[in-house]
Amino acid sequence: MKTQLKKIAMLCLAVCAWSCSSDDDGSNNSGQTIAEIASANANLSVLVDALDRADLVATLDGNTQYTVFAPTNAAFNAFLQANGYANVDAVPVAALKEILLNHVISGETTSSQLATGYVKTLAKGSASTTNTLSMYINTSSGVVINGGTANGGATVTTADVQASNGVIHIVDGVIGLPTVVNHAVANANFSVLVQALTRDDQPDFVGILSGSANSPFTVFAPTNTAFASLLTELSLAGLNDIPQATLEKTLKYHVVTNANVLSSALTDGMMVDTFAGDSFTIGLTGGPKITDFNGRVSNITVTDVQASNGVIHVIDKVLLPSL
């Protein structure tokens, strides 16, 4: 009898050990809330401290469904060090709250449901009080958020930690509040635009569009295909063949300063003054579009990509000012 009891006890311990191991990777935590799972994970303790300081624990402990991209302790400590904070308590509460909300999207979205494109977080930057910040997700190789850690974003390292009120994806970086430049860099469809903005003979567009002077910005961003069409239209072999002054004025023609112009504010026949000094005209018949100084028409294909210091609308043709 003692031998049988000993065997049963050993079996129970083995089952318990397996169960605890499964809980560690998040696969069997669906009875716990997001907040409870995070609190039980030693590798998320700094995140939990941050949530507590920002008074967000109750939000993630309720019944509303959320998807949370949860930075590890190493990710949070790297963020604190990079920004000159001794610890979480040194981060201003208002700023910390928006940073944390920038890791949360409404509803439960598992890794298999994530797709390349934009989603809305719960955070707000300084540019808009109504349009929450956009997050760019790239699923071509894993799940990369806002271009990865090199661009103020992150990569999912552990996906689909199920909770009773949503799902957690553990990430390797704290996702900063993206500027319009961060969004341009994150999206491979804007790689030629980024090349143009950073060409050696151009002004410091990255510094300008990353900063707060003359912000918020509204940027009408041409895709790579739009730039390829422009080069064909102008019979040019490549981006480097565009003269310096022409490229500078053209890039400025896609920017509106001191305004976060959302698509809901666009009206038919609206004249838009740009950073280049020239204006263009908005049309809404058959979908939103722009008629530039030269009478060329570009369609606005994606609207209201919100950044912390402005908003981006995607267009399918490069706009040309007076040259």
UniProtKB/TrEMBL annotation:
Instruction: Give an example GO cellular component term for this record.
Output: extracellular space
Give the keywords, sorted: Signal
Residues of the signal sequence? 1-22
Pfam families annotated for this entry?
Fasciclin (PF02469)
SUPFAM superfamilies per the UniProt record, alphabetical: FAS1 domain
Query: Which PROSITE patterns does this chain map to?
Result: FAS1
Entry keyword Cell membrane: no
Q: Which residues form the FAS1 domain?
A: 31-175, 177-319
Xref: InterPro entries: Adhesion/Biosynth-related (IPR050904), FAS1_dom_sf (IPR036378), FAS1_domain (IPR000782)
| Alphabetized PANTHER family for the sequence | FI19380P1 (PTHR10900:SF77), PERIOSTIN-RELATED (PTHR10900)
Q: What is this protein called?
A: Fasciclin domain-containing protein
Q: Which organism is it from?
A: Flavobacterium agri
